[in-house]
Amino acid sequence: MTVKQIISDLQDYYLLAFRGLTGIFRKPFYFRDTIEQMDYAGAGSFFIIVLVALFIGMALSLQLSAEFARLGLRMYTGKAVGITIIREVGPVTAALVFTGRVGAGMASELGSMVLGHQVDSLRVFGVDPIKKLVTPRMLTSIIMLPVLTIIGDALSILGAYYIVVYVSNQSGYVYWRSIHDVLIVENVIAGSVKPFIFGFLISSISCYSGLTTRGGATGLRQATTRAVVLSIIMIIISDFMLTRILLYLLGFSV
Amino acid sequence: MIIFDHVSFSYGARIVLADLSFSVDFSERVAILGSSGEGKTTILKLVLGLLRPDSGSIIIDGEDITDKTEDELRDVRMKFSIVFQEGALFDSLNVKENVAFCIREYQRLSENEIDSRVRELLRVVGVEEAIDLLPDELSGGMHRRVAIARALAASDPVMFLYDEPTSGLDPINADTICRLILDLSKDKRGFIIVTHKVYDAMKVAERFIFLKEGAILFDGNRDALRHSTIPQIKIFLSELQRP
């Protein structure tokens, strides 16, 4: 791939992401498509998020309990678990699950529509494919990923509670007190800004990959793989950058 | 009228059309023939502005569409109805919703009016009984007929464009599609049919353009095609002699 090609692809991606996002505020509004996407992305991902978040919370709590017990600091388990889940692990885990299920689905569905000339059909009928296909998926991701993250955070904290109280034999009161202390505005903001950005990145990358599919079944496989891999890379990189920016803005010293 | 003026187009390094020039009147019944990968479908996409030529210009009804934006192309596209290869129906929508797609998009009709309009169009193409089926539940022939109904619902075209409308169909279904194509062209609405099935093209078209390596190898009527001595065309015509 030449430098010129990379620049051209980036330009196309930015244009699609911009038009997809601004499409939220431009007529026509495709409410039905958006609701369908929300059902698929939100309700459809609910049980996967519940399961993953519960076990992540339990695993994290086990690790921290073991290490804090060695240092004689077991009473800090709740606080450490809370901060880690709310600020970092919760948003990233939900985003990665969302990428695997929803992002891959978006890329393969749009790719299949491109190969089957369905996107061309939309254009011939005078329908803007970005408004009809990208904007509802983008809006869905921006709304549903934060919702799923909040649910996932709650489940992770609940899973951690089970380990702290029934396995590590610590006080439930102390645990909930620690979680309560962690739920300050700064931490909640630090954790809740990320899913919006991740949702935008996953949907824009996946839609771009899907709509640029070329070359039959192999092309579709490549588009789906590209969507998932690029989304994961961008989630990890943007997570670091957002953490750095948010810690600075919220007045945390590093 | 559609005018291709020295049009060239390539996919990456692969040249598909090389300095192609021809014109087609909206009332003409034209078949574009050629092997796979000779740029037949590309021509239809260029007519609709779905692709942009590398060089040359495409003039539709006196307007150069080469540099038009997507919004400006909307009016140009409404002059045509295209039936893509294998129909290109929206696979998440049933037959009724596929045909009703453009009606819902552009017309404010009640649910009853939409239903009766869709049924009327499906009756025209002879697949009214398939109204509640999903595209993957349709046979190949039904798929194409629903696609034609959807194209009719989209606009009142001056010309139809068909991309391999009979490929993959058995002779009976292919014949049904050919008769439908002829029925729809009765009121002086011409069509361009892109196909490699010369037998079906002979049934419906009056003018034949044969593409080879991005250039026009032959352009003439049925008799001229039948008596052509060009070897590639003779290979294509051998389909007609098969028992």
Main features:
heterodimer; A: 254 residues; mainly alpha; 9 helices; B: 243 residues; alpha/beta; Rossmann fold; four-stranded antiparallel β-sheet; globular
Overall description:
Chain A has nine helices and no strands. Chain A is mainly α. Chain A has one domain. The relative contact order of chain A is 0.17. The model of chain B has no long low-confidence stretch (mean pLDDT 88). Classes of the chains: A mainly alpha (254), B alpha/beta (243). The interface between A and B is medium-sized, with 13 and 21 residues.
- Biggest sheet overview of chain A: none
Overall average residue pLDDT of chain B: 88
Q: Which structural class do the helices and strands of chain B define?
A: alpha/beta
Assembly level: heterodimer
Secondary-structure map:
The complex is a heterodimer of chains A (254) and B (243).
Chain A lengths: L2 H20 L8 H11 L4 H26 L5 H39 L2 H7 L4 H39 L4 H11 L2 H27 L4 H34 L5
Chain B lengths: L1 E10 L2 E11 L4 E5 L6 H8 L7 E6 L2 E2 L5 H8 L2 E4 L11 H12 L4 H15 L14 H15 L4 E5 L7 H14 L6 E5 L2 H7 L2 E6 L2 E7 H5 L4 H11 L2
Parallel strand pairs in B: 3-8, 3-9, 6-7, 7-8
Antiparallel strand pairs in B: 1-2, 1-4, 4-5, 9-10
Summarize the structure.
The complex is a heterodimer of chains A (254) and B (243). Chain A has 254 residues and is mainly α.
